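Handout, tutorial session.
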Amino acid sequence: MWPWSSRTVASELRRLAMRMRRPHAARLRLIRREIASMALVYSVTAAPSIDPDVVVRQLTVIVNGEASGAPADFPPEATSFGEIIVPQDAQVIVTLVDIDDAGNVSEPAVFEFTAADTIPPAKPGEFGVTLVRETA
């Protein structure tokens, strides 16, 4: 568990947002749902970083106001950031920042959404209709 409250994290993110440049917006795509616990799995992608001196891209996921683990670091050429798994109906905030060789941090690209199950059930399996009898 994080030693900071969600309010502290949110406040710090807002403060940092005022000082930083923004990388390209991140994109999320629902790719499957986990049936047992009704969790939803999303893939995270973003456009390539613009500046040549970017040395790391950092992804943060906040679910229902709490950080979902430590920020994840990715190489500067990363455009795919793997999958995130979140509970159905959770409020999710995903942020991406680029960090350059001098330690400067860009303004965060922020993607907020409610994890809604929009995947329809699979088509029912084969079924048939059989003539049983004739009536008058």
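The second record follows below. Compare its token runs with those of the first.
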Amino acid sequence: MRRYAAELLARECCCWASSDVAAGEMLPAAIERVRPDLLVVDAGDFPACCQAAIDSFPRDRVVVIGPEPDPSYGAAALASGAAACVSRDNVGEELVPTMRSVLGCRHEHCPPSSGLAAHVGATANQLAGR
């Protein structure tokens, strides 16, 4: 999922930069190192997967990729403070528009690159120590 999300961002969003957690790196250290504008969490057990790690990160800037198109999972993620939830089945169609919405982007497609990219931190199950 991480590779797919990074490829999707590279193709769709030339004005954004994405970063990943380095092998063995813990989420709080990655957030401190990258200082992302948005955090994308791919986890079936949000927020338990990373609750303590993202306590200092603005929850209205967290997008959760859920395991399946289950409305109860999305509702639970939103109730836990996530800004949005996208099911894995719909990542290709919904992730970029959801990220744009959470970041407050008002354009449908990225304008030509100005060299100042919004920084998006992408995370995955590795963050939960799996």
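Points raised in discussion: The two ends are 14 Å apart (CA to CA).
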